[in-house]
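User: I'm new to structure prediction. If I give you an amino acid sequence, what do you actually give back? Let's try with this one:
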Amino acid sequence: MSAERTKAQLIKDLHSEGFDHVRVVAADGLPEWEKRLQRFLEAGYHGSMGWLADTFARRADPRVLWPGARSAILAAMTYGPDDYDPLAALIQKSSGTISCYAHNRDYHDVIKGKLKQAAGRFATKAGCDVKVFVDTAPLMEKPLAQAAGLGWQGKHTNLVSRDLGSWFFLSVILTDLVLPADTSEADHCGQCRACLDVCPTNAFPAPYQLDARRCISYLTIEYDGIIDRSLRRQMGNRIYGCDDCLAVCPWNKFAVKAREAKLQAREDMKSPPLAELLALDDKAFRSRFSGSPIKRIGRNRFVRNCLIAAGNSGDKTLVPLITNLLLDDAAQVRAMAVWALRQIGRDIDIDKYRQQSIAAETSDHVLQEWN
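Assistant: Good question. You get back a string of structure tokens that encode the predicted 3D arrangement of the chain. For your 371 residues, that looks like this:
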């Protein structure tokens, strides 16, 4: 069977599994992107994500990750929101805003199963070896996808497609078979800077550059610590991720709504009340977010985020829930409970709570919030 026909059959099979677009590129190194990643790391923009530096060599060249790799198949699956507007959700101050990609099942589980099925059939028919990846290996998926012609990295550093917009997940199949490569995609951002201007924390030092240390997605998901006081107000009610730069992109008028049922939004994930979330203990958190990517960050980090949203809400009905968390086992929860109480408890006897809490407090972070 010819390489062209083999490729065509693989693409057809991936489409049957629910993938919306598939492109192929040679599994070569990415020297220009290697330089960009190096500059990103040298600037410290990766924050606490030390694994980016630790796996630098493998990210720069798929053949370091797997020496036998000859072709990379990039597959996109959409998760576009239906009737949900992420920007409109920011107005609902007493509710939390969760990034659209986390409105249902964990995409790693959903996509990897489908990818493995198609890749397995492909390997059997073509007599080749394959490896599948869904955002879990040191691969620069977005540069590979741009080289394959699936889209381009916009000024917000996310991948944008003329056909799909930017609401889609990327996955990769590496194979030791040489397949015909597709043409790379050009940049179509033009003079637009909507994504840069909408960012509430000014996380873009320049177009095509992201300082993760100021990015709300990083702060609420990857960062496990006390969020800088200067950034908390700008976080608003975003409790898991941030979709602002995607939501304003003009190319998303071409976005495709999620076809996979497990990626379609659950109603209880759209703007959940903060009052419900602040009451979650570890068991309740795990139960509520079972099968969700939110479960990965753990209850303490999630409640920390919800307390920042509560502090920004101005909703005094949340005060009893906040004060209950002043004695929580987790220092980051206690610290943000203090901050939230100070934000919305202007006419409350805060000294009373301070005296009750500070006597037994051992965390410098919490003491700094009180003082």
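You can read the tokens as a compact description of the fold. Here is one thing that stands out. The beta strands are 21-26, 71-78, 97-98, 130-133, 152-153, 159-160, 168-175, 238-240.
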